[in-house]
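Progress against Task 2.4 (sequence-to-structure conversion) is shown through the following example record, which the project officer requested during the mid-term review.
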Amino acid sequence: MATAAAPAYVAPPPLEGSARVWGTIALSAATFMNVLDSSIANVSLPAISGDLGVSTTQGTWVITSFAVANAIAVPLTGFMTQRFGQVRLFMASVILFMISSLLCGLAPNMTTLIAFRALQGFVAGPMIPLSQTLLLSSYPRAKAGLAMAMWSMTTLVAPVMGPLLGGWITDNISWPWIFYINIPVGIVAAAITWALYRDRESTTRKVPIDAIGLALLVLWVGAMQLMLDKGKELDWFHSPEIITMAVVAVVGFAFFLIWELTDKHPVVDLSLFKRRNFWSGAVATAVAYGLFFGNVVLLPLWLQQWMGYTATQAGMIMAPVGLLAIFFSPVVGLTVSKIDPRRYATFSFLVFALVLWMRSNFNTQADFVTIIIPTIIQGIAMAFFFIPLVTITLSGLTPDRIPAASGLSNFLRITAGAMGTSITTTLWENRAALHHSQLAESVNLGNGAATSAMNGLASSGLNNEQVLDQINRLVDQQSFMLAANDIFYASAILFLLLIPLVWLARPQKGGAGGDAAAGAH
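Structure tokens generated for the chain above:
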């Protein structure tokens, strides 16, 4: 093992021929497995919640526990790489991911599943950054763009496959298999990676770990997420438990800021926020991703609970989001150095706003084609989203600061995704309750439409109680549809309000522009 005084690390030569092809396949497979797991559970939530006897609101913890643990682990990648080496850490991440996937599938109750999903998210943290690093080391510098384009394809195909695969498995086998399928993929990825990369290990050295900073990070992020997830269930700030978690989150965050700004080896380099390009790009990315991910969770929940869609059908609605993204992403990657990335990001936010505005006009009579068209268009927004914003965020940084900047911006993005899920599902239920009370007031004998509907149901042979149950079901369906429309519309407005934030940045030519692709996703 090298010491702190070891000579500078000399990167191994690029791989050649079939070795490079197999290396690309193995690293992409690991990335695919990881990204797939962030979306595969979305359409399976109703089945998982029903099987384990909890509400779908509690079921969203399956998504948020993975995301929060993953967010906490990402900033640690730099430290762990120096301590253990890139290849060993990547191998450990893949193997532990397979083991935690097996445990998720075997989970007997929701509490255990959430714990194993958190473990799965944590061990997955280093996998994506290191797959990028190892892939770039496999290609000559002149072909780095090709390497990252191929890697980006994987991260775009996985969200397409996730809902489709998750829906099909849930309907035709059983939900635990959405986790078991990681095992054969992981075995192939680990075997090929070890065969090709074991002699290409990076040098290691003993570096101090900011244990207090890490503990404070886990404390405030965990308390904040628990508050968001349990708020609806415990009636928010009427509950001493929620107030306690809110205080812990705020105080923990304050201590975290003070500690990280004064420690010699901080786990998170907060000095990056002194750079306008970094904070404007990172905040725009995080808020936009939180909005995007919250709506990605909401749509299949609405379709399955209130529109009569199966998990497979909901997956088919969500899947086309990657079609146009796969087509346009290489174009964006090749031209982002020539065209102001702020223009691309602005275009992305405008398309997201258009898509969400279209969804805000859905009604309970909307057919499959009407619902799927905005999803297809959304692929354009995704293509123009990640690469330009990462280019803005990392522009002007020296190469030695890019890993820390990429880790911090990814931490913000993933945390925002988890918060977006919790906030969206909570707002959805709150708005539905409001709409339900308003609609219920109009269901009376003085309302001609209500009286006609009740008479029609009664004439079909239903008794009074059954008629009222049917009417209540219709009111519920309308309430949740109107609540979803409210959230889609508000999200569209927020995307438009994010555009000025992007234009606060001043992208610099050169600098990190060429390295920015390595931090994408």
